[in-house]
Amino acid sequence: MSKFKIFVLMNKDQIKKLLDTRAAQLRGDLESFSDENPKIAGDFETKFERFGESLEDAAAETEHYIDKLPAEHHLELRLKAVEDALKRLKAGKYGICEECGKKIPAARLEVLPEARLCMACERK
């Protein structure tokens, strides 16, 4: 049986479990190098690690911090997309393109379960 058919056969509970697992993985990835901001839901702050006291250490700390900022932002966006997909699933709107209102093909949802747009609307 192909992956496509497996996804099509998934029920709402299985899709929820898949999305919950993905959210937990993303949250774990974020927490490995950042802390969640208690004042802003879904916002994480990259940790500034201390290596030592020298000027070279300070430069390395800064470079290390700056290198992690794009990863934090990317993971935050992915986590928000998954959490939004869970909200759509709960509301009965999962798998429906938010732009044109048509069903998102199962093949797209298999690759990107949190997709909110069909490919035609994504290209626009």
Main traits of this protein?
mainly alpha; 60% helix; elongated; two-stranded antiparallel ribbon
Task: Describe this entry's structure for a reader.
This protein is mainly alpha-helical and 124 residues long. It has one domain (3-94). The chain is 60% helix and 5% strand. The chain contains five helices and two strands, in the order H-H-E-E-H-H-H. The chain has helices at 3-8, 12-31, 55-91, 106-111, 119-123; strands at 34-36, 44-46. It has a two-stranded antiparallel ribbon. 12% of the residues are buried. The model is unreliable at 1-6 (pLDDT under 50).
Number of strands: 2
Shape: elongated
Taking pLDDT < 50 over at least 5 consecutive residues as the criterion, the unreliable ranges are 1-6
- The helical percent reads 55-70%
Main sheet makeup: 2 strands, antiparallel
Number of domains: 1
Summing up helix and strand content along with how strands pair, one would put the structural category as mainly alpha
Tally the helices: 5
Strand order of the largest sheet: 1-2
How many angstroms separate the termini? 33 Å
Strand content: under 5%
Order of helices and strands: HHEEHHH
Radius of gyration, whole Å: 19 Å
Average pLDDT number: 86
